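Quick one:
INPUT:
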């Protein structure tokens, strides 16, 4: 590791000015670079610190319920959350500012950066979401007797091929980890094949599935209800046009449209009224006994309204947003449909689309065609709902798995 550390340090020093210059020219600065260098001030965290790392948005979101449960279960411990990207950092501050004791960037994987970071944080245990293998960080954790774990681990097929070619190296690195806990048996076997110790590797399932149904009940009237949740600019038009076409063949259907940003609710209502169909607002207590389209213009209600739908379109997927969480619908055994942009939840759709619980469509035409199938084919629709229930039951339990491991580690 000494030679590896020396080489990476030299390369880092040589390339950093050029990288910074290129990103500056492109208007993309090295956000958090001081923190990544270990040049930050941290509060006095003491000697009982649980550290979670999620590189970007998807991983940070996946950790939400686990971090909340950790705060509840281990109240005398401090919680540190790190990310690798600017967007991940923004989400972490938004979600955990009242829960975590300190939020910062993960260090560059260079000896002086890693050591500076560990000297300031003094973690009792480190949990890294998904599968980020940082050799220098892992080595220094091992050297300092800091338990280091991969949780919610997964490895894509393309990454696996690359790792297989360097198996001799990754086998060495993986032995620095105290445990590797994966989303599936498939991921488990792939990591073992590149050098992880079988006795240190377990299937924990997927943290993102540890969400609960709302205890609140909602009744908005009669009809088969389609929810279009968290829609972004341009998607309202797609959804409303699709609904108008389907309404001609299926007169009983209703649409609950929930713009991601409430300042677009008025525009969405104008689009709905332009169809000639009865349209209203949730804030006005409009219901589906009187209206065909209702705009959800209230805060905090979307996740629990999925209980009343027949199926849902998940927005942020016909632009470059990367989609939103389909499990808010699937938890109620309601099939989820998405456009092609799903990079924030690619792993989730990978699981859902192995059955009929979820569907990713490429075009608005495909969206209409798939909705038509769900509305017209009762057997297919019932199977899709059943698939949602089966997948959810199969995947739950990951959060408690980690809490149980922490309980043993921290005793």
């Amino acid at each position: 590791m000494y030679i590896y550390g020396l080489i990476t340090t030299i390369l880092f020093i040589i390339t950093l000015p050029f990288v910074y210059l290129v990103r500056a020219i492109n208007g993309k600065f090295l956000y958090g670079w001081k923190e990544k260098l270990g040049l930050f001030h941290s509060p006095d965290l003491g000697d009982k610190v649980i550290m979670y790392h999620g590189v970007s948005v998807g991983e940070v979101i996946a950790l939400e319920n686990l971090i909340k449960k950790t705060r509840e279960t281990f109240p005398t411990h401090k919680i540190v959350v790190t990310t690798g990207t600017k967007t991940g950092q923004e989400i972490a501050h938004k979600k955990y500012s009242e829960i975590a004791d300190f939020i910062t960037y993960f260090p560059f994987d260079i000896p002086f950066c890693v050591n500076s970071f560990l000297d300031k944080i003094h973690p009792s245990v480190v949990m890294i979401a998904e599968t980020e293998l940082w050799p220098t960080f892992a080595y220094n954790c091992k050297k300092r007797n800091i338990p280091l774990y991969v949780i919610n681990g997964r490895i894509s097929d393309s990454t696996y091929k690359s790792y297989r070619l360097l198996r001799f190296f990754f086998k060495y690195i993986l032995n620095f980890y105290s445990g590797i806990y994966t989303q599936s048996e498939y991921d488990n076997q792939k990591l073992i094949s590149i050098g992880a110790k079988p006795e240190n590797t377990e299937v924990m399932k997927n943290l993102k599935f540890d969400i609960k149904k709302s205890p609140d009940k909602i009744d908005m009237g009669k009809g088969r209800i389609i929810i279009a949740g968290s829609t972004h600019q341009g998607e309202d038009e797609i959804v409303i046009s699709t609904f108008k076409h389907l309404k001609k063949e299926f007169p009983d259907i209703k649409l609950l449209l929930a713009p991601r940003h409430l300042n677009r609710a008025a525009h969405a209502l104008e689009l709905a009224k332009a169809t000639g169909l009865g349209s209203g607002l949730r804030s006005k207590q409009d219901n589906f006994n009187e209206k065909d389209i209702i705009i959800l213009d209230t805060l905090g209600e979307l996740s629990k309204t999925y209980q009343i739908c027949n199926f849902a379109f998940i927005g942020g997927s016909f632009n470059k947003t990367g989609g939103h969480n389909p499990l808010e619908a699937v938890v109620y055994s309601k099939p989820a449909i998405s456009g092609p942009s799903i990079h924030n939840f690619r792993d989730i759709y990978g699981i859902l689309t192995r059955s009929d619980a979820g569907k990713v469509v490429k075009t608005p035409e495909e969206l209409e065609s798939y909705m038509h199938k769900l509305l017209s084919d009762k057997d297919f629709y019932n199977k899709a709902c059943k698939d949602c229930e089966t997948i959810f039951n199969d995947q739950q339990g990951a959060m408690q798995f980690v809490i149980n491991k922490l309980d043993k580690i921290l005793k």
